[in-house]
Each structure stands twice: as C-alpha cells, then as structure tokens.
Design brief:
The complex is a heterodimer.
Chain A: H1 3-14, H2 20-31, H3 36-46, H4 50-57, H5 61-64, E1 70-75, H6 78-84, H7 87-96, E2 102-103, E3 109-114, E4 125-128, E5 131-134, H8 138-143, E6 155-157, H9 171-179, H10 182-191, H11 204-213, E7 220-224, H12 234-241, H13 243-257, E8 261-266, H14 273-286, E9 302-307, H15 317-324, E10 348-352, H16 353-365, H17 367-371, E11 381-386, E12 395-399, H18 404-411, E13 421-426, E14 433-435, H19 445-449, E15 459-464, H20 469-483, H21 489-503, H22 510-523, H23 527-531, H24 533-542
Helix pairs in contact in A: 2-3, 3-4, 9-13, 9-16, 10-11, 10-13, 12-13, 12-14, 13-16, 20-21, 21-22
Chain B: E1 2-5, E2 8-11, H1 18-24, E3 48-51, E4 58-59, E5 70-72, H2 76-92, H3 102-109, E6 126-127, E7 133-136, H4 145-154, E8 159-162, E9 169-172, H5 188-192, E10 198-200, H6 201-205
Classes of the chains: A alpha/beta, B alpha+beta.
The complex binds flavin mononucleotide (FMN), iron/sulfur cluster (2 copies) and FE2/S2 (inorganic) cluster (2 copies).
Chain lengths: 550, 206
Amino acid sequence: MSRNLVELVRRTHARGAPTALEVLKRALEDHGEITDDDRREAARLSGLPEAAVYGVSTFYDDLRFPRGARHVRVCTGTACFAATGDAHVRELRDGFGLELGERTEDRSRSLSETVCLGFCHSSPAVRDGDVIDAGEGVVERVLAGAAQAAPEPEWRSMLERPVLTEPSDWSGLRAALASRSPESLLEEVQAARVRGRGGAGFPAGEKWSFARAAPGEQKFIVANGDEGDPGSYIDKYLMERNPALVLEGMTLAGYAVGADHGFVLTRSEYPLSKPALEAAADRARTQGLLGEDVAGSGFAFDVTILEGTGSYVVGEETALIACIEGLRGTVSARPPYPAARGLYGMPTVVHNVETLANIPFIARAGAAAYGQLSPGATSGSKLVCFNERFARPGVYEVSFGGTVRELCDEVAGGIAGGGQLKALQIGGPLGGVLPASLLDTRFDFSELAAVGCMVGHGGIVGFDEQTDMRELTLHLLHFGASESCGKCFPCRIGLRRAHEMFADGRAVERARLEQLLEALEVASLCAHGSGMPAPIRSLLAHFPDELGLA
Amino acid sequence: MRVAVDGTSIELADGTTVLQALRAAGADVPTLCFDERQEPFGACRVCLVGVAGAPGPLPACTTPCREGMAIDTHDETSRRVATAIVELVLSELPVAPAPHTELARVAASLGVSEPRWRGMTHAVDHDQRHPYLAFQRELCISCGRCVRACDETQGAFALTATGRGFDANVTAGLDAGFRDSSCVSCGACADTCPTDAITENTLLEL
Ligand SMILES: Cc1cc2nc3c(=O)[nH]c(=O)nc-3n(C[C@H](O)[C@H](O)[C@H](O)COP(=O)(O)O)c2cc1C
Ligand code: SF4
Ligand code: SF4
Ligand code: FES
Ligand code: FES
C-alpha cells in the first residue's frame, strides 16, 4: 500500500476524523448510492485525495450497487448452492424482474447478491432490508413481502468442559495481570503451540514475539472477524454469542506484545456482530476490564469495533488493514509483515477471532492443559460448523484428531432425511473437496493436507447426490473470479479465464486447465489465487467424469 | 551479504532485493509492474525466480536477499509460469500491444505470441479530453505504475486504481478525465506505462 496514503490516513486517525470508507458507507445508508458530492465530502473529511476516494468507492461490493427503498440481498454462498443449486437465486431474479445488482427505475426496489449471511444451517438465505430469512419457503415469503427472521444457529461443545463455547468471565485476563509479566504470558502462548484458526495455521506465539520485538511508538491488535468463507458461521457465533471471550483474548494479546489498542473488523453481512461486540466492550469498560487501567494493573487497553463493506479478500491480513484504514481492500506484498509494519505503519498482530478466543483458557489453565484438549493432535479445541444438508447443523466445539466421518455422522447426525453424502468442502472456498470415500481422514492440519484439503477456518459444507460437480466447479470459479482483488495478474485474469472455460458449456481441455491452475498456484500474490485451484484439483481428481472434460 | 546468482557469487548491501541482486550480477528476468524509480509492487508476477530451498518460485522484485541465497533465473517452473502470465495479459487486450511497448518486448523475450487462453477483453474506451495526455482504457493491464508515479514521484495523487478483479483499471480524479483532476500534466504516468494505455498526445498522433 502507498506509504503516502497510509501516512495521510494515520493523520486522519490521529485527529479522530472518519475514514473515507466510513463516510461513503454513511452516504449509501442515507440515500442508497454514492454520488460525486459524497466522494468529495469523503475526501474532505478523511484528507484522502479525490482519486483515492474514487478508487475506494469502486472496490467494495456494498458500495458498488445502488440500493432501492427496499434492498433485497440473496445469498450466493456455497452452503446455499448446496441446498438449491442456485434455484433460489433464479426464482428471486425472475420474481422481482431484476438482475443481480439492479435497481428498479422508481428506486423502490433493488436486488443484489451477497456471499454468505451466516445462516448456512438453514439455507437458502435471503436478507430483505434488515431481516434475514432462511430455509424452506424463503423465496415465496420474500416475494410476498413477508420475510421473517430465521432462527439463529445453535452451538454445542463436544468437550467434557467447553473452552470456546463457555461465556468469558475475564478470569484468564485477571489471572495473567495478577501473576504474569508480558514475557511470561508470551512464553506460555508459545509453549501452548496455538495455531492460527483463520486458515493458514501460523503459530500465534511466533507472531507475537515478532511484534513484541518490532520497534514502533504504538502497536495494535487486530481481530479478523471478516469470516468470508461461504458456509462458515463460527466467528459469527463468537462475535455475537460470546463476544467478551474475543475481547478478553485481544486484551491478553495486547498485554503480551505491548499494544494499547485493538480493532475488530466484523462483516456487514452479519448485522448483529458489531452491536454485540460494542455492548460487550461497554460492559467491560464499566467493570474496569478495558480502558486506562485494566483490572487495576496499570495496563491500558481499549478497542474499536468496525464493520466491513463486502469483500472476501479483505479477510487477508494486509487487505484487512487497508480496509480498516478506509482504503481499497487490495493485498500488499509481504514483507513487510504486519507484525513489523501493519495498521498505520505500526507493528500489528492480526488474528482470527477464534484464535484470540483460545488465549483466555491458556492464560488461566496453562499450555499443558491446552495441549490436553486434543491428545496426540494439534493443541486446543476447534469450532466447526455444518451446512443445512446435515441433520443437526450448527456450531460445534470439537477436538482435533477425530475422523471426518465421526464429525459428519456422530456430531452432525449425517445427511438429513437419510440422503447420501457425496463430498465435503472443508475450511472455506480455498479448501479441497473431500469425496465421501475419504471420510476416514483425520480432522487435523497435516492429515487433511495429505489429501489435498485443509482445516482452514473449520466450516464444513456437505454436498449430497443432487449436486452436479460441473455446476459446483462453475460456482466456485464464479466466486473466485468475482472476489479477486485484482492486484496480481495471475488471479485477476487467470480466475476469469478458468471460469470462462467452464461457463461456455463446452468440453474443457484438461491440460490447458491444469496449466492455468499451475500459474495461479505458483504465482499468485495471496492465498486467494493460489488456493482457488485446490478444490478444482480435487474435483479433477475425484469426479473427472462429471466435469465435462475433453 | 553474499548471494549466488546462477552460480556466480556476489557481495551485496543489506536490504537488497533479489531483482537488484540479479541485475547487479548481470543477469535479468522480465518485469512488468516494476519501475526502479518506484517501490516494488509485486503485481505482475513475471519476475519469478527459483531460490534454493524455497518451496516454489519467488517474485524477484519484492523478495529481500538473505545471506547465502542461491538464485536461479533459469528455473524451469518460473519461466514456464511467467510465460503463462504474459499470455494471460495478452488475452485481456482487444488488440496486440504496439511493438515498441515494454509489454510487447517482454512478450517477445519470452517467445509469447498466441495466448493459450482467450475470453473477455477490456471494452474500448478512449479519453482524449486532456490536451497532452490520452488514455486508452482497454490497454491498461493494472500494473499500478502510473498510480505510483503520480503518488511517489510527482506527489500529485491524481490517479487511482479502480474496480476489482478482471474489471480493475485506473482513472484520474473522480473519473471525469485527467483535466478535471489534480493532474499537473507532468507526463510521469505516460513515461512509465508499459502498454501505451496512457500516452502523451503527441505520441499518439505520430
Ligand atoms: C483470500 C483470503 C481470505 C482470508 N479470509 C480470512 C478471514 O475471513 N478470517 C480470518 O481470520 N483470516 C482470513 N484470512 C487469513 C488472514 O490473512 C490471516 O492469516 C489471519 O487472519 C491471521 O490470523 P490467525 O493467525 O489467527 O489465523 C484470509 C486469507 C486470504 C488469503
Ligand atoms: S491472488 Fe487474487 S486476491 Fe490475492 S492479491 Fe492476487 S488478485 Fe488479489
Ligand atoms: S495505465 Fe499503464 S501504467 Fe497505469 S496501470 Fe494501466 S498499464 Fe499500468
Ligand atoms: S448463508 Fe448462504 S452460504 Fe452461508
Ligand atoms: S516485476 Fe515483480 S511482480 Fe511485477
């Protein structure tokens, strides 16, 4: 990202002015579209050049399409695809007589797509204004103007004593502040071998020690609540049902690395997340657990909760930082890593919200107890969630190391209505597809990697016999191409070409497709471009006869 | 710090990038988004090289050298993938780039003519409202060099990247042409553009 622009936004932040993105979002909420006057106003308030503001206003999904008085968003995520094969999208389009991204001339109505509303337990999902409706009959209700709020997902821990599904009482933070130095907390987290839960599995302790050692007048903790993986509603659960646990983890991270402020970026697709986190932060401030003097220890830490604007790739850490700064959410080359040069150019620890939710237990019970949560496997417990195809979809806290079959059958109750499971996509859109024949694979990092899959963020989307694998390929490539941030050439052009190869309905030349996948894997700047080939490779390996190959 | 480039050992200052190192050693790889007057950007990915011990090719322009690094500019995977990327770039343009452009020269150096993948190209859209600067939007490959020239070299901040994914492009000001922007007509953008998407008008008329 341009150092000059980052310096400009740092000054804006220092004087407490809004970012350009915040001003643009407000304008959209106010009058349903972004005008040049809004852009000029955003430039004036944020101190960004007009051109840069224009760039921001054309990047984010939420800003790109005009809204009518009644704005309907239909989910095109993978769980909803698994439920209907996208029939719900076609029915709404036809029913409203609008294309996706279109508004009626009298501005009374608009329709757009949204990628995962976090109601994958009850797909298909549609958001009508502020109401999220989902499940059987949703299209008819929305078309009749009678949308009703769908039940929120349930959660359950399969552990003897829940860790991530237990409400925070801030005892981990109190224990650490009372009895540990920041160095000793950092050592405990290193000893606990916490692996990042946002997808890459990077050791948290290592990241903390880089950030702690990095010079900087201020340091930040960023909680990544962008949970863009279609089919995943784990972070939604944490942010909305257990927000204090995330804030407690952030405060502990701040204490260990020497940061005095944290930011949480939630998704605009989850309208309840920001208010829930803000209410939890307010409660913590009243109890003296956030603020100038945390729990009477002299340590100062506070948080700011922000909401995203519709972009999958903004979940990537450098893009996430750019989004918080109110800039275009494109990826930047690393190094410099955020731990050295992150938010506003300062050392920053970026963690997935679930990773942060692991920290209070470690602070309270220690690294050894944390290791025991999954004996003989990756340390700690993991939240997973299942889509509507399963009999008991929901968020579950499980140990690492069980088989995928146990998760699907014993935890989630198998495919609903006695249907047959055909394949699973685990860990988000960049995760490989596991055919039913490989269900005995263990649920852990290296075991899943060995079969071309990943733990990723832990969302599990099951496909039953109805799913057409060529349609699934097209669905995934549509997602890949439309979410590409456009920064690097292989992903920007390559995902488009891959999508086109399947979209024209003709036989796909396998060799030419594989050469394209290689370019994406080898050369992409971030894991969006390098990871999108993974599910396509699995589909080629396990379902070649269904893909229409030449 | 010492590194080896294609087997030749050279001494370098700390903070040197792999691209600087291999050029210092008299070797080279093609680049599209790099301009030595600007911060490296890491967008085009055609500068890939092999590095001993790395899991795969690395972009030379944004990778810092480490003591003892062994860099291979002839690495087969790197060259094969760079070729594929240049084919992809050619496939997004509605016309072949003019022979004198940097893009055409890079394509020629890799022996690329006909892309293996064809599909949607950028819509022809010419902005001639400025007296000296012409913009042919369909020739833009989103390398970001003009935006960085305007920001880092000129400090005019008249340009920005726009859109995302395949629809990414660049524009001046609020997209009402260079004239209605903070453009100071310095021509730094036209000077660095590798495709002639932005040119000085005099050149276009020739
Ligand atoms: C395209 C892309 C999307 C990502 N989306 C998310 C996301 O939604 N949430 C998340 O926590 N990490 C996401 N990540 C990973 C982040 O870059 C980063 O690794 C992570 O937030 C670090 O936290 P952790 O170490 O706690 O996992 C994404 C990465 C990429 C490349
Ligand atoms: S891989 Fe795709 S999403 Fe990632 S930087 Fe490149 S263009 Fe952006
Ligand atoms: S106009 Fe030229 S320099 Fe600017 S991004 Fe496009 S191709 Fe690059
Ligand atoms: S709600 Fe549709 S995929 Fe999650
Ligand atoms: S020159 Fe290195 S990525 Fe473009």
